Amino acid sequence: MFQGLRTVIYHVADIEQAKAWYASLLGLQPYFDEPFYVGFNVGGYELGLHPLEAKSAAYSLTYWGVPDAEKALAQLLEMGAAEHEPLQDVGGGIKVAAVKDPFGNVVGVIENPHFTLEPAA
Q1: Other residues' Cβ atoms within 10 Å of the Cβ of residue 97
Q2: 106 Cβ neighbours under 8 A, 6+ residues apart
Q3: Dihedral angle sign, alpha carbons of residues 55, 33, 99, 94
Q4: For residue 95, what pLDDT band results from cuts at 50, 70 and 90?
Q5: What sign results for the dihedral spanned by CA atoms 50, 56, 59, 64?
Q6: Cβ partners under 8 Å of residue 5, min gap 6
Q7: Sign of CA dihedral 95, 121, 106, 18
Q8: pLDDT tens digits for 50-89?
Q9: Taking 80 as the threshold, does the pLDDT of residue 103 lie above it?
């Protein structure tokens, strides 16, 4: 089911400050830049910044690439995982969902038709 790692999400209190810091660190600008999410393409993998809500617990979220997010989510739930974030289309044909595995870890799946693996610069 899993095709490989695709995305890691860092939750940040100040998305504008975090965007500037990571742009400086990486030496590149984000390819996706919205108030609700900032995404950097780093050697074919995505580093995402997500604004942290005051009531949320901080955690990192890693997305595993899958060919069909709906099917992958269903399989994870059948295997005893609990829904953490429902399946959603985030635009451009990209679909994401996340579960908590039986051990409390947050595991995400991403169906991204635009993903291509490029060598790191």
Answers
A1: 24
A2: 59, 60, 61, 84, 98, 99, 100
A3: positive
A4: very high
A5: negative
A6: 45, 62, 63, 64, 65
A7: negative
A8: 887 655 556 678 888 899 999 999 999 998 999 999 999 9
A9: no
**Which residues on neighbouring strands pair with residue 98, listed in sequence order?**
85, 108
Closest to 106 measured CA to CA, from 1, 11, 41, 15: 11
The Cα 95–Cα 117 span in angstroms is: 18
Going by pLDDT thresholds of 50, 70 and 90, the confidence category of residue 93 is very high
φ/ψ of 49, rounded to 5, equals -115, 130
Question: Tell me: the pLDDT tens digits for 10-31?
Answer: 888 888 988 998 898 888 999 9
Cα(98)–Cα(51) distance, integer angstroms: 17
The two tokens of residue 78 are 């059948």
